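Hi team,

Filling in the usual template for the complex we talked about on Friday. All components are listed, including any nucleic acid strands or ligand strings, so the model treats them as one assembly.

SUBMITTER: L.P.
PURPOSE: interface mapping
COMPONENTS: two
RESIDUES: 658
SEQUENCES:
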Amino acid sequence: MPKIRLGIVGYGNVGRGVEHAIGQNKDMELVAIFTRRKPGDITPVTAGVKVYNVEDAERHLHAIDVMLLCGGSANDLMVQAPHFAAMFNCVDSFDTHAKIPEYFAMLDESAKKSKKISIISTGWDPGLFSLLRVLGMACIPNGCDYTFWGKGVSQGHSDAIRRINGVKYAVQYTIPMDCALAEVRKGNNPALSTCQKHIRECFVVADPQADLRLIEQTIKAMPHYFCDYETIVHFISEKEFEDEHTNMPHGGFVFRTGTTGKENAHQQRMEFSLQLDSNPEFTAGVMVAYARAAHRLYLKGETGAKTVLDIPLGLLVIESMEELRKVVV
Amino acid sequence: MPKIRLGIVGYGNVGRGVEHAIGQNKDMELVAIFTRRKPGDITPVTAGVKVYNVEDAERHLHAIDVMLLCGGSANDLMVQAPHFAAMFNCVDSFDTHAKIPEYFAMLDESAKKSKKISIISTGWDPGLFSLLRVLGMACIPNGCDYTFWGKGVSQGHSDAIRRINGVKYAVQYTIPMDCALAEVRKGNNPALSTCQKHIRECFVVADPQADLRLIEQTIKAMPHYFCDYETIVHFISEKEFEDEHTNMPHGGFVFRTGTTGKENAHQQRMEFSLQLDSNPEFTAGVMVAYARAAHRLYLKGETGAKTVLDIPLGLLVIESMEELRKVVV
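RESULT (copied from the run log):
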């Protein structure tokens, strides 16, 4: 059985995660990495992997079964993905929820022309959390769902703090509120806004001369990002920042709670959670599993854009459906 | 849009649950109930629903889009399901894990002949738990999975107690051990047998003259069912039994824990759990969602037996994929 030949576009945190994830799947091999940097500046972990400029990708059309697009949603994928979808089977983790319909339409057009497949917005939210929200709606139609994020680093909020005068380094953790989790678990179906579900905890390294009180006030007053939230600000040393706050943990919860039966007498609850030491590596693992599905669906003749909701879960693993029926079902 | 016309075969706890679940889905209607009892002995909750003898089902071939087979795995489905799969699109919750390959093969043959679809082993284990086990394997290939059942009533174990001399009523709860759950959540990937993961708690109403010590000893010594487990036996009054132990709660957990990245440095954990006041009603809700998928796949021309692993999750809900991309993904 020939291995599935994969390419990586973009060698940041997710790209490196994809490289490690491919190494954990014995039916796959990494063929090449494509970068906008100078190829010589990149040293892949995997022996024998070539690094090329991203402009050279089309010369490798026949060497790569599925391309993993590891760029960011905000700046890279809106432009890059339609271009790649017109040449390769692709998988990405596009995560700007509001733009998914528009992004889907673009990639669907590209991929249908090229007769290839693009699976968009894999990863965990969107991605696994989308799957679980739909599963909850399906099985408990008379109910509510709740998504909580964290405990984990929000890049957007960390960046917002870093833009404040006098801030040298900063990281912001989004933390689900225990009291909100408890209310949901009780089945009370509370109405909860995002800021009633989460605390924002910030760790800041300030410049020596900076006015700490002013920085704290500026953070807490920042519209959209912090002003509606319970926000905690800690000032720490550069050493503590380096030692304790350079990982990228994340996670979260999806709940569905509702009632069934005569007079809705019975409470039913579904709960899904992730606790991730490394957000980009887990995202990478999900992408690689969907690359397997993309390859299989392409071999069956399917084309166009897909989301995780279009893909049977049995296609994600190395085992055949027959093996899965024996062991897993 | 015409409603999906459903039939129920077998009007026990799951069958009644299916009837209530259909009432929660506005794109569906219950057309008829088929029973081995005298049709006159059954009074459906839903107005206008006809009750027929199970032998008369084939006269309703054109009136029913999907038949929900609500019989038990041990005695009903092995015989009944191939017969129905040869006539109707079917959904069942066949749950004898070891016999799934054999059962699948039988139904696949029947359903391919009739050019219909049978989705087997929906419900929650097998069913949702199978989905989550596969999702875990896919996203964290270097890891272990764990399934815990409970807290909930095990019919098999309750029946085993009831067969003991001097026992009038009995119910057995399977309860996950907190210490085992904690070990798994820590990511230690412990080796745990089923009896190292669960406690068995029994509530027994004994005959007035019965030797309680003997009953307790008999339970605790019962091979396979109890002797390897931490087993707790309570003797209670008939009133307490009626008041506290006639519901059918259940639930459980599926975990996947493992590592990713360079030198497997990062722990990743996925956890799914169900807490159900009514096991049969939740099972029924899952079956009804898969009936929607069966109908949609049939309209697309698919045939044969399927498991939950073959079905895209987006097909389970009333919303179209386009609506889901806007709202859920």
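MY TAKE: Chain A has eleven helices and 14 strands. Residues 68 and 235 of chain A are 39 Å apart (CA to CA).

Thanks, L.
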